[in-house]
Amino acid sequence: MSTTALPPSLVPTLGGAYYVDPEIFAKEQEKVFEAMWVCAVRAADLERPGAFRTVQVGRESVIVSRSRKGEIRAFFNVCRHRGAKLCTAESGVAERNFQCPYHAWTYDLDGKLVAAPNLTKMPDIDRVEYGLRRIAVREWLGYVWVCLAEQPPSFEATVMQDVIDRLGELDSVDHYTIGELAPGRRIVYDVKANWKLIIENFMECYHCATIHPELTEVLPEFADGYAAQYFVGHGAEFGEGVEGFTIDGSAGLDRLPAVSEEQDRRYYAITVRPLVFINLVPDHVIFHRMFPLAADRTMVECDWLYLPGVVESGRDLSRSVELFHRVNQQDFEACERCQPAMSSRMYKDGGVLVPSEAHIGEFHAWLTTALEA
Ligand code: FES
Ligand code: FE
């Protein structure tokens, strides 16, 4: 942190090392991503028994799949024999079993070891004990959340509480029926920046006037750098004459039926620690999941979710998708512009936060506490 005294209106940021140092990143993997609930996949992506996706959570590759009975399961993607990576594909359908490509140990969809060459010569092997190691799962908002910790923290007190802290109550998010919506579009961004730069950017709107001309047309109060999500329950209001949350302010799609009068014509943004952002607008939900791969690289998977009837009808979603896609591009470009400077000697002690970014300081305090735990 800075050695020169800061004026009272400014708060220091984290030092540059937090964004580039592989040791700090390794600590974040262990103490944050592998210790907390992380949003892994959209449940509906696993349509039928055997469907799976592999995702990176901290240092681990994780298989998320659907069992024969239709339940969601998650396993470490590590063969119990000699450790080969079991599923190498990003997604697919295991017809009946997962079979290791090395010596063909075979596991059923519940992870139990069911076959292996010469298995009869090993009568004492416990097929559950030597089955795939399970990971805790939870389904919420139509997504599968996983936690690698032996003793997962309370989902309610962490993930759900973050949403309550932003919106005041869970009821308000229920109005958007996120779990029942259908993906109209998914875009995956490969961002060459540290995950915290992406979060910090999402948490503030000080940059909106400079880099988001289209967004500030739709949400004029953002032009003042007013951080809407800082205030509990405060949604940013659409500008006069704006018909919908679209690239040109033209009418959007069908409004989600349970969205209240108060929520209509408003935009809400929620950060769910550590790796999720949710944006709520009257006719759709934009759901971001981040997958940090290295200190300077983060994959961001973003879903645009609409009423199933809207998606099925084949109506044109392009103006709707384009607004936040452009915002994403503008934001990620800004993050990528900051990343190389994080290792500058000039930024060793970090920078400063202005008053409207004060809650980023709270995020830093939360993170450093988690890393020390
Ligand atoms: Fe998987 Fe040998 S490592 S069967
Ligand atoms: Fe932005």
From TrEMBL:
Tell me the cofactors it needs: Fe cation
Where does the record place the Rieske domain?
39-146
A GO MF label:
2 iron, 2 sulfur cluster binding
- Where does the source fall among the domains of life? Bacteria
Q: Which residues cross the membrane?
A: none
PROSITE patterns in the record, alphabetically? RIESKE
> Is Nuclease one of the keywords UniProt gives this record?
no
Q: Which InterPro entries match?
A: Rieske_2Fe-2S, Rieske_2Fe-2S_sf, Ring_hydroxy_dOase_asu_C_dom, Rng_hydr_dOase-A
Supply the alphabetized keyword list: 2Fe-2S, Dioxygenase, Iron, Iron-sulfur, Metal-binding, Oxidoreductase
Name listed for the protein in its UniProt record: Aromatic ring-hydroxylating dioxygenase subunit alpha
What organism does the record attribute this protein to?
A: Tsukamurella asaccharolytica
